[in-house]
Design goal:
Elements lengths: L2 E5 L2 E3 L5 E8 L4 E10 L6 E7 L4 E3 L7 E5 L5 E6 L8 E10 L7 E4 L3 E5 L2
């Protein structure tokens, strides 16, 4: 019932910028946190940034001075502004949400299908 849809990926030159978006829809009671992960070929999936419902954020060290995560007013959307992109940022970027579908449900994690980001000259 819950669906996460990412958009905004593409091909950019080193030093360029991209803005990723993710929208959560379906049967949702409350969202506790949303995050961006990425996975490069042959590598494990890794956390890029996370934002809690109270606005607190967490960043991986390798992106904290270049990327910014934020949420929309509805709290059902999350963005990732990426500046100063490097070739090593090339990966599939996945949206993740920790949420309850109903008030008495446990908090479960849901994933989007991913969007490709390629940084190359």
């Amino acid at each position: 019932q819950v669906q996460l849809v990412e958009s905004g990926g593409g091909l950019v030159q080193p030093g360029g910028s991209l803005r990723l978006s993710c929208a959560a829809s379906g049967s949702i009671f409350s969202i506790h946190a949303m995050a961006w992960y990425r996975q490069a070929p042959g590598k494990e999936r890794e956390l890029v940034a996370r934002i809690n419902s109270d606005g607190r954020t967490n960043y991986a060290d390798y992106v904290k001075r270049r990327f910014t995560i934020s949420s929309g007013n509805s709290k059902n959307t999350v963005y990732l502004q990426m500046n100063g992109l490097k070739p090593e940022d090339t990966a599939v970027y996945y949206c993740n949400a920790d949420l309850k579908q109903r008030v008495y449900d446990p908090i479960n994690s849901y994933w989007g299908q991913g969007t490709q980001v390629t940084v190359s000259a």
